[in-house]
Amino acid sequence: MRTTRILLAAAVVATTLTAGLWAGARNDRAEASVGAITWSDEFNGAAGSPVDSSKWKFDTGGSGWGNNELEYYTNSASNVYQDGQGHLAITARKENPAGYGCWYGSCTYTSGRILTADKFSQTYGHFEASIKIPKGQGMWPAFWMLGGNNWPTTGEIDIMENVGNTPNTVYGTIHGPGYSGANGVGGNRTIGSPLGDGFHTYAVDWSPNLIVWYLDGSEYFRATPAQINGNTWVFDHPFFMILNVAVGGSWPGNPDASTSFPQTMLVDYVRVSAWNNDGGTASALKSNFSGRCIDIPGANPVDGARLQMYDCNGTAAQQWTFNSDGTLRAMGKCMDPAGGALTNGTPIQLVTCNGNPVQRFTLSAAGDLVDVSANRCVDVKDWNSANGAALQLWDCAGTSNQKWTKA
């Protein structure tokens, strides 16, 4: 099975979004479109006990894993174990206790890499872990997902990566055919102190045509098909999870005299929730800001009717259905950006469904109603909370006038 990651430093350059770009980024996750927990591990085993084999298996070996990594991944409780204090520990050691051979000769380091392949996988949802990462030049901890054995065709979602020479920065990235390795699409967030100083939560909300990354509940990057330059979006099938600590490699560089060993990544929990797909059932879309619903004016709307906010009343003019073709429909017509424009301030209207990709919308697990082609959110214009308030496309900012709940 090829589970290669080739994420060089350039991988996050072209499409990186830093902490300040998403002005007003939210600090708490909207739960409206996230269902029940479907899988979790709290790591409450006795000190020194192995991981739960019903949930995890091991990758082993010293092949370099496509990245010129230096470690040999073992299945030993010396490298992967529960610490008796509610944590998983993955420890990288400067040792070779069993004469392991690596791609460069006799191995210098051992570490651990565990995955849920053949145990658990899921399409869409909220994937989150609370992790205290290791520190030091050459360290490369990661919490990530793969969509199968045929990389990059089956896709990769990196929920959290850090390299020791940028201790304050978390990276989130997707890889697929035509946008893999150094061409991966990703963003990052930098905070004021090393991430390894304490536990942080790392998460993605994954729904059709949208993946959103969070550090400690605050959004810092989102990816849609619009960002992969016409390549194939390969994130609509089950993915499994991976936790590992790599040593050295093409991106972080090798350890040096400043790097101390052993180095341990502690994981407090890993939890997965379902994506709450409505299965094509019509429902109202209620604003978290005003408490009113997206409404079609008039009993017999014509093409071009501008959508508005109005008191929720359960009528057909407020019953929206997410269809398998990506359209959002009510009263037999589609939600549409006026004139096919995708810029800030474009009004939202109702027109005959015409197959134009600009009519594809998705409601993310975070409550963002996103035009997939524009990668912009449906926004209550001018923060108007009254009946008749207009709707527009606007850069997604995580604000309450862009948050929606199915009602």
Shape, principal axes of CA atoms: elongated
End-to-end separation in angstroms reads: 44 Å
Structural class: mainly beta
The first-level CATH class name of the largest domain? Mainly Beta
Per DSSP, what share of the residues sits in E-state strands of 2 or more residues?
35-45%
Helix content: under 10%
Number of DSSP E strands: 32
Task: Note the quaternary state here.
Answer: single chain
3D structure, described in words:
The chain has 2 domains: 9-275, Jelly Rolls (Sandwich); 285-406, Trefoil (Acidic Fibroblast Growth Factor, subunit A), CATH 2.80.10.50. The protein is built from no helices and 32 strands. A hairpin with a 2-residue loop joins strand 6 (101-102) and strand 7 (105-106). It is mainly β. Helices cover 0% and strands 37% of the residues.
Keywords:
407 residues; mainly beta; Jelly Rolls; Trefoil (Acidic Fibroblast Growth Factor, subunit A); 2 domains; 8-stranded antiparallel sheet; 7-stranded antiparallel sheet; 37% strand; elongated; disordered N terminus
